[in-house]
Amino acid sequence: MVYEAIKGLVQYGQNAGLLKEEDRIYAVNQILDVLKMDEYEEPEGSVECENLEAILKELLDYAHETGVLLEDSVVYRDLFDTRLMNCLMPRPSEVIGAFWNHYEKSPEEATDYFYKLSQDSDYIRRYRVCKDLKWKTDTKYGELDITVNLSKPEKDPKAIAAAKLAKQSGYPKCLLCMENVGYAGRVNHPARNNHRVIPITINDCEWGFQYSPYVYYNEHCIVFNGKHIPMKIEKATFIKLFDFVKTFPHYFLGSNADLPIVGGSILSHDHFQGGHYTFAMAKAGIEKYFTMPGYEDVEAGIVNWPMSVLRLRSKDSDRLIELADVVLKAWRGYTDEAAFVYAETDGEPHNTITPIARKNGDMFELDLVLRNNITTEEFPLGVYHPHQNLHHIKKENIGLIEVMGLAVLPSRLKKELADLGDAIVNGKDIRADEELAKHADWVEEFRPKYESITAENVMGILQEEVGLVFEQVLEDAGVYKCDEAGREGFGRFLHSVGFEG
Hints:
By secondary structure, the protein is α+β, with helices and mostly antiparallel strands. The protein contains 16 helices and 15 strands. The strands form 3 sheets. Strands 3-4-5-7-6-13-14-10-9-8 form a 10-stranded antiparallel beta sheet. Strands 1-2-15 form a 3-stranded mixed beta sheet. It has a two-stranded antiparallel sheet with strand order 11-12. Helix 1 packs antiparallel against helix 3, helix 5 runs antiparallel to helix 6 and helix 11 packs across helix 16. The longest helix is centred in the last third of the chain and has 20 residues. The radius of gyration is 25 Å and the shape is globular. The N and C termini lie far apart (73 Å). 39% of the residues are buried.
């Protein structure tokens, strides 16, 4: 069986375009080396070469049975099967050369090639990503995307214990450093043997372009600084965003904010996220237009969205960059006690921006999402953060992806929603269940809306209600609320900058 799996893996590599016929023997020998095997007999006839997950499982099971793979948990299996996939991989220079050859025909062809390679290489594990729960919920702000992400594996207790004991390494410095390309990984750092990065020039500096292994949306890419330097939102940020959008006009690109609570999970390495997807926020219209003297050629307006978004549009991206810098500098220092907006308290800055750039037809667009990370005794995790009554669904930071209208929810919800549905249908006491009790108030709140909740419709109802919770999450995270007082406060800020309207 192991010979068949080896032949199947090599054939998979050929079919996917990772290998050529001339590479076949070389690839077989590389796999034998990883498996610590000295002999090989080519099986006759056809073998399984399409189901990559099944092929790798066969090889991983063999490695564990023979003592080559010492631990049989997902962390160690992932480290090992990435070494196997590396036996099929083209060198980074080959991938980079092929990418730019495709780019000469069109940017779309280049990204199509690289996205397919990132999946075929198992860097993006298709068979895990397809297990993610995904649905859409209609709200007054448009159709929100909801995902319960299951493609990031849960670490088992042994691996967690081993990670604590593992020597702390400074190489690579983080998950976004260039040095991850080809890195074998360790128990506290994922394997990246099969990882490839395309070097690109952004604002006259070397940056890297890659895909996220967890693809929260179509062609979810990460663009990161070639140097390990912290996130910082400044005028240069807007220049970088548009440099990328001009190179890949079919992709949007945005940045997480650069302050804790309202920022992303990695603030230590300057990076952006983008992709080939249109979020609900991008589809949302302008509810009120403004004009900035000296920038009459730039369309500006407040977006009909629960977060506080100023959209700028122009055929000239340089004009957007200049005006965005004016807005950013003004917001950094802006305080409005009546709206509970404080630029700083005790010397700690609170105001920043989450910017998103895109090309829409012949117009460049820049969405500036106003953020503030102030905390209080009542809201210790953030005033403009999901409030405590929503933490049973979403407690984590609201970063770039959520801001645009896609909820990335914790994997625990898959089991909790299934158990909750069963409890509702069978009339069980939800408060008596230690794991489900946190959802009890929520269920009591929405239950009267539905005449009948049955085994057939309960999951649809729960998904709908989770989507409506995410709508509230975004409303909590908005600095200026979508009511009269909130819009007056937003207007006061824009007028203080110099906008008219």
